[in-house]
Amino acid sequence: MSSQLLPRMKRELEILERDPPPGVVCYPVDDSLLHYCAQIKGPKDTPYEDGQFKVDVQIPSRYPMEPPKMQFITPIYHPNVDDAGRICLDLLKMPPKGSWKPSLNISTTLTSLSVLMADPNSDDPLLVEIV
């Protein structure tokens, strides 16, 4: 673990607690700063509206140079999420295929995931049959 990782994760946890993304709760698992559980409230006016969706968030040792690993724990029928809960979201991938940047953080990534739930990306589906 890099010496910058721990202070960064403490700052990110403070942001998540003080100013969480709308409809999202995120907390450390077993007091770890490298493993989180997020709960995303289903976005309004979507098929997910009344649901609560758990997402496992793992922070790699090279974070923020590398994106966090996120996976739905709660099953979700969505074209950008496969049966194992893996998520196809450009922010979760390194360039050139993805758009992860070290300036992003867990909060912005969870916000993007919530937006993806409300507005699936049919140009980049994981499950073509759902599109």
From TrEMBL:
<comment type="similarity">
    <text>Belongs to the ubiquitin-conjugating enzyme family.</text>
</comment>
<keyword id="KW-0808">Transferase</keyword>
<keyword id="KW-0067">ATP-binding</keyword>
<dbReference type="InterPro" id="IPR050113">
    <property type="entry name" value="Ub_conjugating_enzyme"/>
</dbReference>
<keyword id="KW-0547">Nucleotide-binding</keyword>
<keyword id="KW-0833">Ubl conjugation pathway</keyword>
<dbReference type="InterPro" id="IPR000608">
    <property type="entry name" value="UBC"/>
</dbReference>
<dbReference type="GO" id="GO:0005524">
    <property type="term" value="F:ATP binding"/>
</dbReference>
<protein>
    <submittedName>
        <fullName>Ubiquitin-conjugating enzyme/RWD-like protein</fullName>
    </submittedName>
</protein>
<feature type="active site" description="Glycyl thioester intermediate">
    <location>
        <position position="88"/>
    </location>
</feature>
<dbReference type="GO" id="GO:0016740">
    <property type="term" value="F:transferase activity"/>
</dbReference>
<dbReference type="Pfam" id="PF00179">
    <property type="entry name" value="UQ_con"/>
</dbReference>
<dbReference type="InterPro" id="IPR023313">
    <property type="entry name" value="UBQ-conjugating_AS"/>
</dbReference>
<dbReference type="InterPro" id="IPR016135">
    <property type="entry name" value="UBQ-conjugating_enzyme/RWD"/>
</dbReference>
<feature type="domain" description="UBC core">
    <location>
        <begin position="4"/>
        <end position="131"/>
    </location>
</feature>
